[in-house]
């Protein structure tokens, strides 16, 4: 029998992933270690409003995550705007692509990493889109913000590549990340999962840090983390996890990674 897997993604993704993993035979438990909400700072809201007013001037829109898609789609609905038909829609991986399809974007308009890419990230996306990039184009990157920086965070590498090609890059921060609500309930859940020697699935560096800060006295040397990107894996090692497994950010990839730990077919 496979060990319990703790899904640390924010909601609603945590429940969706847990359901898919359960259906694939992996016992799963939701413990969101990050909360997502709409951008609230005046600077972020002003940057988003400006981008929406210029939506038809962009050659491409890049969405960094499914949350970026969902919160942007909410803004389109609120402002009675349609998805820009003239723009290519860029995505770093299958989860974001699925969110775009659910929001009504046709697959023919979407560019994404190759299905057999080693990682689903900006670098793999760039391999697919760089031939369509031209000087003088405009690209909007839709991503998260921290409440202070109107540009938000994420995809710095891709921004640099675009700017080197003479592309104007704008940013639309549509959501904010927050630590999970403090409370004895969260600590009790973490303590119980530690006692079960559960596996921890991380899809963001922030979730690793929030777990680490929940009780700095806890050691994670005897525990195992699965990380969906090398940068996240590095954070898990820094947090003290004794075993860190790089895994593709897909249900099939995660199941295969867990089985490999136990030499299961």
UniProtKB/TrEMBL annotation:
It is an enzyme of class 4 (lyase). One of its GO terms (molecular function) is uroporphyrinogen-III synthase activity. It catalyses: hydroxymethylbilane = uroporphyrinogen III + H2O. Residues 17-255 form the Tetrapyrrole biosynthesis uroporphyrinogen III synthase domain. Gene3D superfamilies: 3.40.50.10090. Keywords: Lyase, Porphyrin biosynthesis. Its EC number is 4.2.1.75. InterPro entries: 4pyrrol_syn_uPrphyn_synt_sf (IPR036108), 4pyrrol_synth_uPrphyn_synth (IPR003754), UROS/Hem4 (IPR039793). Pathway: Porphyrin-containing compound metabolism; protoporphyrin-IX biosynthesis; coproporphyrinogen-III from 5-aminolevulinate: step 3/4. One of its GO terms (biological process) is protoporphyrinogen IX biosynthetic process. Belongs to the uroporphyrinogen-III synthase family. Catalyzes cyclization of the linear tetrapyrrole, hydroxymethylbilane, to the macrocyclic uroporphyrinogen III. PANTHER family: UROPORPHYRINOGEN-III SYNTHASE, CHLOROPLASTIC. This is Uroporphyrinogen-III synthase. The lineage of its organism: Bacteria, Pseudomonadati, Pseudomonadota, Betaproteobacteria, Burkholderiales.
């Amino acid at each position: 029998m496979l060990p319990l897997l703790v899904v640390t993604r924010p909601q609603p993704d945590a429940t969706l992933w847990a359901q898919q993993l359960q259906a694939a035979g992996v016992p799963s438990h939701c413990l969101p270690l990050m909360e997502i909400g709409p951008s609230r700072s005046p600077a972020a809201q002003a940057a988003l409003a400006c981008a929406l007013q210029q939506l038809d001037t962009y050659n491409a829109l890049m969405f960094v995550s499914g949350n970026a898609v969902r919160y942007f789609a909410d803004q389109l609905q609120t402002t009675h705007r349609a998805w820009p038909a003239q723009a290519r829609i860029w995505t770093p991986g299958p989860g974001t692509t699925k969110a775009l399809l659910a929001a009504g974007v046709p697959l023919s308009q979407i560019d994404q990493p190759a299905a057999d890419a080693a990682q689903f990230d900006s670098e793999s996306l760039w391999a697919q889109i760089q031939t369509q990039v031209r000087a003088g184009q405009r690209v909007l990157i839709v991503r998260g913000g921290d409440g202070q920086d109107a540009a938000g965070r994420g995809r710095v590498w891709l921004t640099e590549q675009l700017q080197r090609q003479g592309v104007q890059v704008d940013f639309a921060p549509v959501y904010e990340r927050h630590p999970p609500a403090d409370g004895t309930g969260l600590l009790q859940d973490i303590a119980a999962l530690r006692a079960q020697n559960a596996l921890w699935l991380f899809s963001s560096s922030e979730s690793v840090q929030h777990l680490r800060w929940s009780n700095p006295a806890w050691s994670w040397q005897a525990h195992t983390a699965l990380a969906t990107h090398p940068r996240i894996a590095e954070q898990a090692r820094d947090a003290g996890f004794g075993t860190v497994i790089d895994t593709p950010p897909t249900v099939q990839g995660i199941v295969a990674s867990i089985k490999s730990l136990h030499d299961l077919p």
